[in-house]
Design brief:
It is a single chain. The chain is built from ten helices and three strands. It is mainly alpha-helical. The protein has a single domain, classed as Rhodopsin 7-helix transmembrane proteins (Rhopdopsin 7-helix transmembrane proteins). Helix 1 crosses helix 10, helix 3 runs antiparallel to helix 5 and helix 5 runs antiparallel to helix 7. This is Olfactory receptor. It is a multi-pass membrane protein. It is found in: Cell membrane; Membrane. Belongs to the G-protein coupled receptor 1 family.
């Protein structure tokens, strides 16, 4: 297929065409993004500086927080900046880069969440073999596999979109470059490409969701044989994972597990998994996890103690 890219830039319609409403959104989403950056960095720094948080669960949680911070940063800063201007523009290459990074990072997160569910399954259902099965080497390989899987998914989506001819119009009814809004602008029949995009995203979503569902069903069934204290602790940890999975997978499956058509609700649903979920994840994992809260308190106490010593040293 001949590439016809007469379009050098795309115009984004954003979340709203109401300028007064956009000013409200600017303040709101700027506040959300600050929480995303602060919350996820806090989790990463806490786990990296705590000797007690060295289990595979926290190893994966660092990557989850990094991914939340990264993929929200692909869309949120542009969204926030665009709320201050009338004409929201993104270059063709910038659009393709945003599409690639968004799918790369979010798909990697899907795999990391799946790996975390497997980790909880081994920890609860096979505790005697946990350290052997979930060795550092195995955990590293799982993370690498997640990154590779995310890259393969994303490069496929991006190449399928990039090879389409875009000869105008160039107005995207969204606040970032995604596959379905771009397919609407291609000046050719995109039926086959649409099927391939859905098959690519759908297969990953369904397989991962099935693995997650089975893992947590088996975990919940096996908890009946645990002590009351062990059951409460395991349920607390699993509840956090389940909430994150539902919050992340629900909107993603609504967007990508359907024919290549767009709905007016898509933008608000996208806001949920690109901004709201990355903001909520640190709260979910800290408020429900005593070990993380304790490590944060120790880290804060250590910092205050160090600051106090430095002040005394400076005075002397």
């Amino acid at each position: 297929m001949e590439h016809v890219h007469n379009v050098s830039e795309f115009i984004l319609l954003g979340l709203s065409q109401d300028q007064e409403l956009e000013k409200v959104f600017f303040v709101l989403f700027l506040f959300f993004y600050i929480l995303i950056v602060f919350g996820n960095l806090l989790i990463i720094v806490t786990i990296k500086n705590s000797q007690n948080l060295n289990s595979p669960m926290y190893f994966f949680l660092v990557y989850l927080s990094f991914l939340d911070l990264s993929y929200s940063s692909v869309t949120a800063p542009k969204l926030i900046a665009d709320m201050l201007v009338k004409r929201k523009v993104i270059s063709f290459s910038g659009c393709m880069a945003q599409l690639f990074l968004m799918h790369f990072l979010s798909c990697t997160e899907v795999f990391i969440l799946t790996v975390m569910a497997y980790d909880r399954y081994i920890a609860i259902c096979k505790p005697l073999h946990y350290t052997t099965i979930m060795s550092k080497h195995v955990c590293n390989r799982m993370v690498v596999a997640s990154w590779v899987g995310g890259f393969i998914h994303s490069i496929t989506q991006t190449l399928l979109t990039f090879q389409l001819p875009f000869c105008g119009p160039n107005v995207i009814d969204h606040y970032f470059c995604d596959v379905y809004p771009l397919l609407k602008l291609a000046c050719t029949d995109v039926h086959i490409v649409g099927i391939l995009v859905v098959a690519n995203s759908g297969m990953i979503s369904i397989v991962c969701f099935f693995v997650l569902f089975v893992s947590y069903v088996v975990i919940l069934v096996s908890l009946r044989t645990h002590s009351s204290e062990g059951r409460i602790k395991a349920l607390s940890t699993c509840a956090s994972h389940i909430v994150v999975v539902v919050l992340f997978f629900g909107p993603c499956m609504f967007i990508y597990l359907r024919p290549s058509i767009t709905f007016s609700e898509d933008k608000m649903v996208s806001v949920f998994y690109t901004i709201i979920v990355p903001m909520l994840n640190p709260l979910i994992y800290t408020l429900r996890n005593e070990e993380v809260k304790s490590a944060m308190k120790k880290l804060w106490s250590r910092k205050l103690s160090l600051d106090r010593k430095q002040k005394i040293s400076w005075v002397e």
